[in-house]
Amino acid sequence: KQKRPRIIKTETPVIRDVAFYQDVVNGLTSEPKQLQSKYFYDKEGDRLFQQIMNCSEYYPFQCELEIFSQQTEMLANVIAKAGATADLIELGAGDCTKTRYLLAELVKMDTDFTYLPIDISENIIDFLNAQLPLDIPGLKVNGITGDYLQMLGRAADHSDNKKVVLFLGSNIGNMSPGEAAEFCMNLRQHLKPGDLVIIGVDLKKKPATILAAYNDKAGITKEFNLNLLRRINRELGANFEITQFEHYPVYDPDTGGCKSYLISLKKQQVMIPCVDGSTWINFEENEPMFMEISQKYSIKEIEELGRNAQFRPVANFFDNKGWFMDTVWEA
Ligand code: AVJ
């Protein structure tokens, strides 16, 4: 057996994002192993997520698009009612396909507001800053790149304007229920009485429907998960053998937790290089790596979430199937 060199100098790329490196190494050296789903969204991840939104099985996107395109005026009225100059902050804006309806309506209604999209993908924010003012003349856009939990404070302290915070697409599902409760309380701290939040929630429904949304036949969700391993190879110079990991999603109707794992198909070692010596990660055969939670809620659970964070319920918007809800709370 060959001796492994402790310091590997050759293939080590310059680590551009130290937080990414640290989170990956921490997650893979903890027990059980895990990665953070916010890192799915590099350029390739953005592209794969676009494809997921076009999958017939992935209903949350279609449902919320229906709400935003069919009930635009009612949504806009909830926001415009206060009349004051507003900051419309969107956490995890993505390409903002759904929000565009609302933005166009608010501009049409002559509402005085600035749109502040926040997204972890720099790629997406550059696109929004350039494209949105062209698509919606008169719209003021000030996009910010970053982790939305970190950037929320910056966006909220941006001005004394009335705040409307959008947190759509079931992004809240990527937190555990405990983290979501903490997040809502945190969010409330950044807001003043009269400020609004609109949260997109994927509701509990037939378990097979939910599971299928995270296990599409075309295998795009599988690629979406595997792309994070590829990203770690690309950006951190690791040597994951992508074919030796299997996508395994599960839905637990008791808890409403839809979780995805990558399962190691064999006993194997993965190396993550670093200038002061690389880290070796040992996988057992069939060892799971936790990738993502997409939590589903009941209407009652969401009402409780808002109440516990000192929000007042204002309105709920549903798609025709009643599978998805955009809930409006007032601080
Ligand atoms: C963008 C977080 C809402 O959890 O449903 C889609 C991401 N993951 N398919 C979700 C996702 C797998 C999505 N969110």
From TrEMBL:
One of its GO terms (biological process) is methylation. Keywords: Methyltransferase, Transferase. SUPFAM superfamilies: S-adenosyl-L-methionine-dependent methyltransferases. The keyword Transferase applies. InterPro entries: EgtD, EgtD_Methyltrsf_superfamily, MeTrfase_dom, MeTrfase_EgtD-like, SAM-dependent_MTases_sf. It is an enzyme of class 2 (transferase). Residues 21-330 form the Histidine-specific methyltransferase SAM-dependent domain. Its EC number is 2.1.1.44. It comes from the Bacteria. One of its GO terms (molecular function) is L-histidine N(alpha)-methyltransferase activity. This is L-histidine N(Alpha)-methyltransferase.
